[in-house]
Structures are given as C-alpha cells and as structure tokens.
Amino acid sequence: MPLTRSIIGLALPLLLIAGCTENERATQRPESPATEEDQTPQQTQGGQNGDNGDNGDDTELASVSETFQPYGDDVAAVTYDDAVPEGATVDVRVTEDDDGEGTEFDLAVDGLEPDRDYGAHLHTDPCGEDPDAAGPHYQNEEDPEQPSVNPEYANDDNEVWLDFETDSEGAADPDTDVDWTPREGEANSIVIHEQHTMTGEGEAGQAGDRLACVNVPL
Ligand SMILES: [Cu+2]
C-alpha cells in the first residue's frame, strides 16, 4: 500500500543518517523504527524472554549501541584516549547459536582514527574511571596463572578477540565466533586497545594500552 511504502522510504534514510552501518542488523533490533512498519511479528522480541523458540533464530545475549564519552555516571562507553575520540560510536551484538554450543560477537565502530590497527577483547568487569577497572580477558578455560600470557589460554579460541583495522573513514566491523557461551555474569565489557593482539609466549593476549571500553553485560 502506497502510504506504508512511503513511510518505509522515509525510515530507511533516517536509519542510515543515524549511523547504522548495517541495515539488516538495525531492522532486527526491537527498538528499531523499521519494525513498527513491519507487519510480521517474528523479529520483534530478539529472544529477550528466553524461549522464543520455533523460528530457528539464534538467541540474542546482548545488543548495545553507544557513543564514547569521558568517564562519568551512567556512561556505558568510556574513552580514555584521543585515538577513540569522544563522539565515536560503537555497536555490539552477541548471539548464542540455536543449539547453545557457540557464540557470535559482532562489533562495529565509527569515528575512530582512519587506517589504523586496534585490538579489542571481551573483558570480565564493567568499565570504570580507571581503564584497568574492566579486569582481565574473559577466558572460557581460566589460566591458573594470572595475568595470563600463556598462548595455551590467551588465544582467540579461549578468549574473544575482535582486533580490527579501521578504513579511511575510521570505521570497522569485526566479528568472531567461539564454540562456547560465556558464563552468565562473568563477562561485562569490550575493551579497545592501542594495537593488534600479540600471540607469542609470555606476551599472548596483550595489545597495549586500553583506549576505550564499552559495557556489554552477559
Ligand atoms: Cu583486552
């Protein structure tokens, strides 16, 4: 019907202006205006109630869209360094496979320095005023020796690594899969670091200074 179509025609450009780099992802969000125009209900709840069950979709564990700001009360995305400028945006989506045997992490950033390497990982604690507040990397199998720099534990199968290189506009959208699900309550943030993650003995998992942090409670 022509009226509905014209509304959608207005809504899509607005989504693009709002900085959504992936239309498809935006239209699946429960809060997305686009779903209000969509008469089919199956994508509107995103698994928030646990067992939405019969459509075969993965379960959404987290969906976060934030803008980096200096630390303060209720700031969910904290920048500690100009390499992640105030006003840069971050989107995180975490989905558990339908069979419960794996998890996908999708990160999207925009407004960072162009053509630059960054590291990024899932950390155990929420972001704080101190960059170290986010704690160590979340590990599926925890290294008895901390801090963990042993490649047997500090690797991209046992931790969540989302290293990326920004494009000429300062954007990137890395993703990764692991074959486990984080223990509830034990992973709470994604930290962006100053360089790609090292993998050698005695330095594995390290990626330089912590530039920014976004809360992703799982
Ligand atoms: Cu890290």
Walk me through the structure:
By secondary structure, the protein is α+β, with helices and mostly antiparallel strands. The protein folds into two domains: 1-44, no CATH class; 58-215, Superoxide dismutase, copper/zinc binding domain (Immunoglobulin-like, Sandwich). The protein is built from three helices and nine strands; from the N terminus they run αααβββββββββ. The chain has a five-stranded antiparallel β-sheet, with no helix packed on it. The protein has a four-stranded antiparallel β-sheet with strand order 1-3-4-7, with no helix packed on it. Strand 3 (89-96) and strand 4 (103-110) form a beta hairpin. It binds copper (II) ion. Copper (II) ion (CU) binds next to strand 5 and strand 8.
Classify the secondary structure makeup into a structural class.
alpha+beta
CATH topology of the largest domain: Immunoglobulin-like
Amino-to-carboxy terminus distance = 41 Å
Q: What is the CA-atom radius of gyration, in angstroms?
A: 18 Å
Helix content: 10-25%
Number of strands: 9
Low-pLDDT sequence parts: 1-55
Shape: globular
Number of self-contained structural domains: 2
State mean pLDDT (0 to 100 scale).
82
Beta content comes to 15-25%
- Distinct small-molecule ligands in the complex: copper (II) ion
Strand order of the largest sheet: 2-9-8-5-6
